Amino acid sequence: MSRLLRSLTDREFHYCPGCSHGVIHRLIAEVIDELDIQEKTIGVCPVGCAVMANEYFNFDTQQAAHGRAPAVATGIKRMLPDRVVFTYQGDGDLAAIGIGEFIHAVARSENLTTIFVNNAIYGMTGGQMAPTTLLGQQTATTPTGRSSKQAGFPLRIAEMAATISGAAYVTRVSVHSPGHIRAAKTAIRTGFQNQLDEKGYSLIEILAACPTNLGLSPADALAWVEQQMVPYFPLGEFSTTERMVQP
Predict the structure, then answer these.
(1) What is the DSSP string of the chain?
(2) Rounded to two decimals, what is the model's pTM?
(3) CB 20 within 8 A of CB 26
(4) What is d(CA 134, CA 169) in angstroms, rounded to the nearest whole number?
(5) Consecutive 10-residue runs of the chain (247 residues): their mean pLDDT?
(6) Residues 159, 164, 167, 168: what is their CA dihedral angle, to the nearest 10 degrees?
(7) Burial level of 239, CB count in 10 A (0-12/13-18/19+)?
(8) Beta partners for residue 204, in sequence order
């Protein structure tokens, strides 16, 4: 167990230098410790760079098949409604193969929290184009840059979720600077507190850096997030439609 955080183990992160996953893991652990919910929290991590998150989180976790984290989390939460259940998903997992599971979990207003890590590229599988890859961005499968004519436009997941009546809380934050990291922690805390208050589905989208697959240094990758991602994926809370609560 971490000397400073109960909810993190002492295992060294395997992530590439400059990867944002380690920062986000720590923020989640800090929030869980501060809310004193370690013993009742269950994390659901599907396929992706964070598939080994169970090695780092010092609480119960469940691995899901690629894209199926919201469905697995729904089953856990409905069987164990007193638990705090969250999914930890990347842009390929949530916005591609898992888009259906995600959208319908929001529509049902499942009392869950989703941490959505958006780094605009597939990480674990080698840097292919993701649903959030920016126009003109070069990847392993778009070597000359993403074209809207060939591959469509990047998905703005937070904006999409905010149009669904089941969404209780939708926000987009970033971890490219200390100030933004502090704001991200506040958003994560709100997402978990909303679940404790039984408000329904919370989505925290986090803009993140993937230096290895962007071909940038860690510092340049953070600058890229600020200069390239934030203009297309604006930060802030998004208005949600009125929830349709059944009697």
Answers:
(1) --SS-TTB-SPPP-SPTT-SHHHHHHHHHHHHHHHT-GGGEEEEE-SSGGGGGGGTBSSEEEE--TT-HHHHHHHHHHH-TTSEEEEEEEHHIIIIITHHHHHHHHHTT-S-EEEEEE-SS-TTTTS---TTPPTT---SS-TT---HHHH-----HHHHHHTSTTEEEEEEEE-SSHHHHHHHHHHHHHHHHHHHTT--EEEEEEE---HHHHT--HHHHHHHIIIIIHHHS--EE---PPP----
(2) 0.95
(3) no
(4) 25
(5) 80 95 97 98 93 93 95 98 97 95 97 97 90 96 96 97 96 98 98 97 98 96 98 93 55
(6) 100
(7) exposed
(8) 115, 171
Task: Name the CATH architecture for the domain at 21-237.
Answer: 3-Layer(aba) Sandwich (3.40)
CB atoms near residue 110 (< 10 Å)? 21
Rg (alpha carbons) of the chain, rounded to whole number? 17
Distance from C-alpha of 53 to C-alpha of 144, rounded to nearest angstrom: 33
Contact 137, 146 (CB under 8 A): yes
Domain layout of the chain by residue ranges: 21-237
Question: Distance between CA atoms of 96 and 103, rounded to whole angstroms?
Answer: 11
Amino acid at site 170: V
CA 224 to chain CA mean position, Å: 19
What does the block give as tokens for 212?
């290895």
